[in-house]
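Case study.
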Amino acid sequence: MTAATIAIPKPASRSRLSWAISDSTAIAARNLVTLRRLPQLLIFATIQPVIFVLMFRYVFGGAINVPGVSYVDYLMPGIFVQTVTFGAMSTGVGLADDLRTGLIERFRSLPMARSAVLAGRTSADLVRNVFVVMLMLIVGVMVGFRPDSTVVQFTAGIAIVLLFAFALSWIFALVGMSARNAEAAQAMSFPIIAPLVFASSAFVPVDSMPGWLQGFASNQPVSVTVDAVRGLMLGGADAGDIVASVLWSIGLIAVFAPLAVRRYRRAA
Amino acid sequence: MNTTLQIQRDDPRVSSPVPPTSTDAVIRVEGLVKRFGDLTAVQGVDLAVEPGTVFGLLGPNGAGKTTTIRVLTTLLRPDEGRASILGIDVARDPQAVRESIGLAGQYAAVDENLTGRENLRLVGRLTHLDRSVVRSRADELLERFGLVDAADRPVRTYSGGMRRRLDLAAALVHKPPVLFLDEPTTGLDIHSRNDLWSIIGELVDDGTTVLLTTQYLEEADRLANRIAVIDRGQKVAEGTAAELKSSFGNTIIDIGFADAFDADRARTAMQAAAGVEANPDHRTMQVSVGTAREVLGIARILDRADLDPETFIVREPTLDDVFLMLTGHVAEDTTDGESS
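After joint prediction, the assembly is written out as follows.
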């Protein structure tokens, strides 16, 4: 470096939004490199859902009565939603890890958009979820899952799963930015997730649950999303469920994205 | 601590003869206060760093050095007082400050899973350099920091020294005129430390203004044009290394005796003539004197008392002596871990 040290290359003038997108893309690319370099992360992310598929398909499924469809067809939309819901924890775990190593500190000292580290992470996790859902779809077909709807409806079902996953990522972005370390982020996440996934229509019909639980179980976002996806994949799409799921996702993003970014600005 | 020495806390020689209050200071801190709950990490620190100089913040763990750097690099907002970089207020326009600063050291980091080259390019993109500039700049820095061979290996395969060099390189991608180094060599072996020291020296030769924190007196002595000694959130002294040392007295005599009884007698005999500081072993002591003539005086006092020292070593004061005098404890003393 010469005496030109003082001459800072002037950043090209672009709008704030344009920079925010460019910064987020750079961060997302960085997170995806990690995924490409450590493909075992993707494999680990699907081991648990595969076990769930096998358990419910071959162990518990026989004891569960679902009206009108075979249990494996009933199960798989639930599995897709369950997979991305548990997977959303990794958004928080990853951010907590970046906080611990000091990487967030570096990013916060750079003149980059304040939203970019979180938006980049949630976007990269969205891309990861595309792969995870595809893998689970293959597993589903292998154990007898036979969707019965149009390509458009089926694709819309996948899109609803991914939108919901993206919304959940923002909740866990907030958790990750508030946790001391990755283990703590994981520990904080589980109590949020477990009731949503298990007290839902993902594995069993809600009307088989005790009355006091049904009110929660049929209206909470995981059930609403599972019902919407199930309708889109098995025929008999319910507009009410679809709208409710999309509204849940948009609402979660609208609440948790600003909270997470605010937490990022103040991260200590 | 000996009372004779304590007076020197306020010795005018310790604070700068010409306080650097000129308007062209690159880094300016006035009455900075930062609290964490009940803990006041920084309580009313003033600093001014002239362009193209290295300013050292010297102090033990928990003294408030890192907190000060984190306020200056916009990572924390000050509770009271003001801080500005190149005239830009860190609280009012943090984004503009970020364009002019680089941060490296203990806590700032690089991504383990990316290669060295990818890390530098990522920072280049995030500091909004043109794509072509990002590439050439990354190559240039890899070359300069001796990381060309490791450039395409993931950082998790790097040694501690290589990692620290990459970390510093990452802070320089956008050629910031002001560089903050938080304990840049803590935990490094001597070889890597010397490497980093010479790199920092070159940066300053190129006109970069540097503020660094360190627990190592040798590091402050070697790198910094001016040093502020920070203890418990306050600045207890400031000056050049030479000024700080001379405030202690020009000469130190280390005197040792075979037993504590003789040592005690010697201390009593010399007390009137000079500042005497007993070491914890009760058999050795440090005497600070101003002139060579006073050294002879001390020797005469001991001789008259018929004392027979085992050691009598005359030397220049080190920053260690200064630190001990100013803070009442040795520099490596670790109080509570710096929460910041």
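Observations recorded in class. The longest helix of chain B spans residues 190-205. The interface with chain A takes residues 73-76, 95-96, 98-101, 103, 106-114, 118, 122-123, 125-130, 133, 140, 144, 154, 170, 172, 174-177, 203, 206-208, 340 of chain B (CB under 8 Å). We will return to this complex in the next lecture.
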